[in-house]
Amino acid sequence: MIWMWIGFVVFVLAMLALDLGVFHRKAHVVKMKEALGWSAVWIALGLSFSVFIYFGYENRWLGLGTAYDQMAVSATNPQGLNDGTQATIKYLTGYLIEKSLSVDNIFVIAMLFGFFAVPQIYQHRVLFWGIIGALAMRGVMIAVGAALLREFSWIVYVFGGFLILTAVKMLLLKDHETDPNNNVIVKLTRKFLHVTERYHGQHFFVRAGSNASHEEATPGSGVEPDRIVDAAKAGTLLATPLFLALVMVEFTDLIFAVDSIPAIFAVTTDPFLVFTSNVFAILGLRSLYFALAGMIDTFKYLKPALAVVLMVVGVKMMTHAWLKGLLGEHFNLYVLAVVLGILAIGVFASLWGHEHEEHMKHHRPRGHEPLAPSSEA
Hints:
The protein is mostly helical. The protein has 13 helices and two strands. Helix 4 (120-151) runs parallel beside helix 8. The protein is globular, with a radius of gyration of 24 Å.
């Protein structure tokens, strides 16, 4: 089994190296067409991996399908093992849940980039390294969560209750913009590191007196010198606002992972299925961000739909034994269909609402047009 884990991690690292080292070697603004193309590539990879999951678990390749899955335990399967069909359904359900929850993360990242005024040309770099950190953090959280579930099976009910409370909070509490400068993580970063006043290319750190610290403040460039750089002792390591943006992206993903990791454990506690579905959902986050960032206001009903999804998987997590007895061995397929239906309703309702608002703007009833300014003195 260890070789399967090593092989998957090597594959992911190779894909990331190919992405950054070849296709995005030169910093550039990611356009909609490119973002949609890469989104299609990552989604195709994620869905195609389900074929490998089926045959791997069906034929027990390198130990796949021999891990205990608390959500697979039944009268006919007391060992809690997944065959190819069960593993594929659980992988696809987990992938869909993680992918949909990552959309909510995109909205917050867009707000952070706006606050820190991150130039579009450097946003891909922040998201790339942000995802590297996210993969490492989620790997640790999945390992810890799986170990806890193995030792204390009752924790599944704690996770389920947490998901339901999170869903209720998402439904009842309105979003409000906060000032990232007041965030404790930003304050700690500023306390331990000197942060420059402006961006220095795509650098997260610069040293005072280096070429990088003056590359945008050359004579005649029209860019004001960075007073913090000029005042710092030569050789001092300084963080840039791009690093602050990266820190906040990592912190945001950590918060979202607290919701998403229990959500995938509601589907399966098999660590390999949990990790692979998470990884493929996260890998497409960057391209999905550039594809959706300009359409955030369009999908206003998606957040309530995500809240309902969390509530469904939370209830499923707490009643999985009863549901399996009621609906049969393939009840996970029904859960997948319900999640797809909820998300589809959220998307279509958002698109219809947006179209209706645009229609009302362009077809105001007579007498409701804005009054023209008076020409009288």
